[in-house]
């Protein structure tokens, strides 16, 4: 057809490129992860996540107000738990006055309209650093799901809008959904980490929360018996379909950039919103390369976020949210 059709006409100026652009990023796309610590007046940078912080509740309130002002509408909460409060069953996770429960209330107090999602998993509360109860080297499935259901109710009671189970136990979405219904939390949603891979990209997050699996006898050194093998594709669809059938309102693929083939496939398979978690290691890589002067931070960040959305993400959980806001909105 050349020269009748010349694709470069649609690229000839910034204006025509803007006009025909298929994918754009807005504050509505972001779920902003926040790390909370005990104490007062604390805002400490996470060494392997430059310009990202653990905050005490007073700073959390300030942060949430600022995020709302910037146009963001949803946060995802994680807490760092003191070692002496950790045990094998994650008892502290159920404390009605625990850090997570107080964090939920703090966010709602500072900014009632901000949507609050909470991480539901045992690892920050586990003395072994696992997402489930460990017995004789095994991660117990059904017993763990029961604790996750109790945890979800506790978060709902504190005011969480959505719970986000990130553990990968089988059947936990149904267990959580039924428990929420039984307790009358019909409108508390579930965002399931449905295709969560056993990934080496979670390293900086585990530094942030001090939640890595511990190196002692009879405790698995990795999470490969519950998180997915990164070599697998069909399994991701099966996992996600099951979570939708069990009552997940939103599903998630995690990590992000190396898994965009999975994102697209899942987007084509299910009709619930699909979230993508651009994880801590992805963030750290861009920050480190930019610090060395090897990559243009802002350009690479925008390219990655756009690629994640182009692949099919309706929601992006990303530590770059504020960096993107600075440039875009
Ligand atoms: C806990 C959880 C993890 C992440 C989110 N929730 C770590 C893990 O599974 O080991 C990782 C997020 C990130 O790396 O940014 N279940």
TrEMBL record:
Keywords carried by this UniProt record: Heme biosynthesis, Lyase, Porphyrin biosynthesis
Pfam families: ALAD (PF00490)
Pathway info: Porphyrin-containing compound metabolism; protoporphyrin-IX biosynthesis; coproporphyrinogen-III from 5-aminolevulinate: step 1/4
SMART domains, A to Z: ALAD
Catalyzed chemical reaction(s): 2 5-aminolevulinate = porphobilinogen + 2 H2O + H(+)
EC number(s) recorded for this UniProt protein: 4.2.1.24
Keyword flag Lyase: yes
Gene Ontology molecular function terms on file: porphobilinogen synthase activity
Top-level EC class as recorded in UniProt: lyase
Family per record: Belongs to the ALAD family.
Quaternary structure and partners: Homooctamer.
Record NCBIfam families: PRK09283.1
UniProt-recorded name of the protein: Delta-aminolevulinic acid dehydratase
Gene: hemB
